[in-house]
Amino acid sequence: MIVLIAAAAQNNALGKDNQLLWHLPDDFKRFKELTSGHYIIMGRKTFESFPKPLPNRTHVIITRQKGYNPEGCIVVHDMESALEVCPKDQAVYVIGGGEIYNLALPYADRIDLTRVHASFEADAFFPEFDPTQWKLVSSVPHEADERHAQSFTFETWDRM
User: Fold this and answer.
1) DSSP 102
2) CATH number where 105 lies
3) Per-residue model confidence (pLDDT) at position 131
4) Can you give the residue ranges of the DHFR domain (predicted)?
């Protein structure tokens, strides 16, 4: 199963200048719970936005750069190669950025989307997806609180 996992604003904003636009601890917790123990596919810029590789996950990095080879990671040059190196019998998570989500959307079986209830100025966006091709199977709202400046909803969409 190929799963796109993202947090996106109402206007599909993901980030700006390779940084997230919000701080949502419960979203980080969900991301860790879902992706731990799995292969995660990302673009080079997303990988480089981490202080270090994420623990207990196999990193598959898509880049056009020749000779790019961070220790302990699998480096490929296109989405098809990224999917080929991943196990076929378990969930594989695509974690961004915007260009990688666009490339992965046609292959995706599920979208685990944290919909942030605000709009932001951004330079990276989650792709529009046709709601007639997807079924919302779970929607869990989370109000803003002392740890979360924005309200948000955990949504799970399965391809029909």
Assistant:
1) H
2) 3.40.430.10
3) 87
4) 1-159
